[in-house]
Design goal:
- With 216 residues, the protein is of the alpha+beta class.
- The protein contains 3 helices and 12 strands.
- The strands form 2 sheets. The protein has a 10-stranded mixed beta sheet with strand order 10-8-7-6-11-2-3-4-1-12, covered by helices on one side. A two-stranded parallel sheet has the order 5-9.
- β2 and β3 form a beta hairpin.
- The chain starts with a helix and ends with a strand.
Length: 216
């Protein structure tokens, strides 16, 4: 009988632990990835890192494409509607990356330049974001759990950045408050290729660039 009671106690404890886990994950104050819409409240600390089974969609994999442009090599062009970032290589070609862009009402267009670069950047949500999402942390040190990912390139005097992400499944979607995100592997590659001062052109949501894959 004592053994049966012990088994019952163990089962009860396991059920209680499961109930606590569900309750905690449903907590509206749980930290979520910045710029995520409220319909997707997954804690950013447990989002799937790209090196644990995540497979990037083929069209978003880094690749060299035909891309005629008058812009100088080293220029970054953000194709907002198609969720691509082009790094101009010259000779009618560019290196293309898949990206996540601003959600409805937060997309923007214009010309900026990279004013600063950072490896494993810290994250301090701006006041505007905290007003929308007051449950977010006021500061988060850089690292694998940081929603800015492995690298960040800061654009002019704005709050916008080109950065990595701990939510690689958001590439190809419109989820941010205006920042441009890449998977960590791609943002590390881009970071190594561009310099402070590089020109960044963000195309409007109505624009559609057309590029044909020429080399993988």
């Amino acid at each position: 009988m004592s053994r049966i009671r012990a088994l019952r106690s163990f089962a009860f404890a396991a059920l209680a632990g499961a109930a606590f886990t569900v309750t905690a994950s449903a907590n509206p104050l749980a930290l979520i990835a910045p710029d995520r819409q409220s319909s997707d409240p997954r804690p950013f600390a447990v989002m799937p890192p790209q090196d644990q089974g995540f497979v990037q969609a083929e069209r978003f994999k880094r690749q060299v494409v035909d891309y005629p442009t008058r812009e100088a090599p080293g220029t970054i062009i953000i194709d907002t509607p198609n969720t691509y970032l082009y790094l101009v290589l010259g000779d009618g070609r560019a290196l293309r990356y898949g990206i996540g862009v601003g959600r409805e009402g937060f997309a923007w267009a214009g010309v900026q330049s990279i004013r600063k670069k950072a490896e494993w950047p810290d994250w301090t949500p701006p006041p505007e974001m905290l007003a929308r999402q007051p449950y977010l942390p006021r500061f988060m040190a850089g690292g694998p759990g940081n929603p800015l990912g492995a690298r960040a390139m800061y654009l002019g005097g704005t709050e916008f950045r080109i950065h990595g992400t701990n939510a690689p499944d958001t590439i190809g979607t419109r989820v941010s408050s205006g920042c441009i995100r890449l998977v960590n592997e791609d943002v590390i590659d881009l970071y190594s290729r561009v310099n402070v001062g590089a020109k960044v052109i963000v195309l409007p949501i109505e624009h559609r660039a057309d590029a044909r894959v020429s080399l993988r």
